[in-house]
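Can you make up a polypeptide sequence alongside its tokenized fold?
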Amino acid sequence: MDASGQVSPRLALPAGFTDVLAAERAAYDLPPQLPKVAEQLIHAFLALLFPHYTREPGCRAGDVDADAAALFQLLDEALTLPTIDLDIRRRVSHEFVAALPGIRETLLLDAAATADGDPAASGVDEVILAYPGFFATAVHRMAHQLWTARVPLLPRVLGELAHRFTGIDIHPGASIGHAFAIDHGTGVVIGETCEIGDRVRLYQGVTLGALVVQKAMQSKRHPTVQDDVIIYSGATILGGDTVIGAGARIGGNVWLTRSVPPGSFISTSAAIDRRRTPNGSASTESTDPALEFHL
């Protein structure tokens, strides 16, 4: 009935369209509402590993077991995929459970690195609760474990949910070392074959992408970032052959498609303060032109 009190005509789908949709639904064999299950899986994963996300403070061992059971049930539901039989599902689940202590330990290192490198952070608790970079990294570490176990689809759904929540897009295939930090984070993109070392820090708008995009490419398409590198906001680094040497600093808005040696400082302008090399030697930096590039 409309505002005038007249009965509105009954709406109906176009002729034959109902049959098309019904047939498609009948043929669909993925878990129902997989994105919803994946979102619940993320929250169950965080609730098990961190007290910040548990239902009640001061929980007992029995509560931990209950949270673990909830996570395992959601994982089993999400793994009910056409290409995964029962034996594979059991193997993947056991491998995932066995990896949880290591994932948690790595995430604590990530949180500490984020807190230590950000003067605005009051501590690790704030990072775990409020930092989008930590949330995206936590989801990635879960998704990457499933990706390495060759689970189809689910890791991508998990990564895309983190992307939706945070604006940070990390492909589950990317390999990321310990003590990883993403500050601010909006617009960060990390590609599938990217390899990132330990103690790397990224700022908002960083892209670690492919130089050439071809569907048939099976080789490494994304850069390698070695240990102790900092990449500032807006930098774009492309190509599977591109290696950012250990301890390098990549300035804001740099566009880079070639490798740079360890300890380099890359900037778009010569009007920039010099930075110390990883060993703290300012004199070495001032005499070795290989350590600094201006694009």
Residues 187-268 form a domain with the UDP N-Acetylglucosamine Acyltransferase; domain 1 fold (CATH 2.160.10.10).
